[in-house]
Design the sequence.
């Protein structure tokens, strides 16, 4: 749906989580897409709060997983 990506990125910004990269795969069931986000270094609590808020957005069906990676 139009505006979904904007809504999600606004939540990350609100929690001071900077996005490094993202990958959006096309529609998987004719109505929804899968989006993968990679962030810059961020506080764990900030990421958790952002994910919790994103899960509750009306345009988000689910947050499938969160994987923490450190370089």
Sequence:
């Amino acid at each position: 749906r139009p505006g979904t990506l904007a809504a999600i990125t606004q939540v990350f910004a609100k929690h001071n989580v900077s996005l490094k990269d993202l990958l959006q795969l096309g529609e998987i069931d004719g109505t929804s897409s899968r989006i993968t986000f990679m962030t810059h270094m961020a506080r764990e609590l900030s990421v958790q709060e952002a994910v919790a808020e994103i899960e509750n957005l009306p345009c988000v069906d689910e947050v499938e997983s969160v994987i923490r990676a450190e370089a």
In short: Helices lie at 4-14, 44-55.
